[in-house]
Write a structure and sequence with these properties.
heterodimer; A: alpha+beta; Aldehyde Oxidoreductase, domain 3; globular
């Protein structure tokens, strides 16, 4: 059963790894991805980023993504923690942990989890620039491509044009 | 057909343009899918027209599942509109 959390507070990476591995001797490797706030966006300095989400749906989507990974790579442990609210450069945003008997499964599952999280969990980022401007981050086609390489089709994805003539 | 109220949610720049996080609405008869709901919302005022202008990448969820324009909506549903997700 995966650990899935959305929170304003920072996370303790060591404590989260320990929570996955403590008392277990069947785990051979734990993959870890930590997303952090970068100081620039497209070359422009930012002072902060605000993360908004859809309470309820976010947790459901994250749990569904974790369930997919657990089944596909027979994971022995899985953690997804995503922060919301105002975050400054250097701050942690997201933690992904995937524990498995062997490294390949642990590393692949970690990549899958962050790729799918970026395209299937309802979070939105707004960047606050040093010059006072602010802008919502646009979805990147590179993220779509990264998520698509794991298959799974369009079920559970948000990439569906709603407005006539919509881009997407 | 939907006669009972719908619970609508707006996120990110859609929330900013319509000027609210959520509302309960009673759409007219004939609003039976996400697509027809969106067309009706677009005509409710300048903020809605700006949020749902043709060409904008608007996404939707019905009862917390991603949905498309053809997705039916029923009385009491929770319908959310938002931009493509950008977490992680």
């Amino acid at each position: 059963m995966a650990t899935v959390r959305v929170q304003q507070a920072d996370f303790d990476i060591g404590a989260e790894v320990a929570a996955v591995t403590a008392g277990r001797t069947d785990i051979g490797g734990t993959g870890c991805f930590i997303g952090t706030v970068r100081e620039t966006a497209d070359g422009r300095p930012i002072t902060a980023m605000t993360l908004e989400h859809y309470p309820g749906m976010t947790e459901r989507a994250m749990a569904a993504i974790a369930e997919q990974a657990e089944a596909r790579w027979s994971l022995l442990g899985c953690t997804l923690i995503h922060r919301v609210g105002r975050l400054t450069p250097g701050a942690n945003i997201v933690l992904v942990l995937a524990a498995a008997p062997h490294r390949q499964a642990a590393l692949e599952a970690t990549a899958f989890l962050i790729d799918w999280l970026k395209t299937r969990a309802p979070f939105w980022k707004k960047e606050h620039f040093a010059d006072g401007a602010e802008a919502w981050v646009a979805a990147r086609v590179e993220d779509d491509a990264a998520a698509a390489r794991w298959g799974g089709g369009t079920a559970g994805r948000d990439r569906r044009t709603m407005a006539p003539g919509g881009s997407g | 057909m939907t006669a009972a109220p719908l619970h609508l949610l707006y996120f990110a720049w859609l929330r900013e343009r319509v000027g609210m996080r959520e509302e309960t609405v009673q759409p007219p008869a004939g609003v039976a899918t996400v697509g027809t709901l969106l067309e009706w919302l677009r005509g409710r005022g300048p903020g809605f027209a700006a949020a749902f202008a043709p060409g904008l990448p608007v996404r939707c969820a019905v009862n917390q599942e991603f949905a498309g324009p053809e997705t039916p909506i029923a009385p009491g549903d929770e319908v959310a509109f938002f931009p493509p997700v950008t977490g992680g």
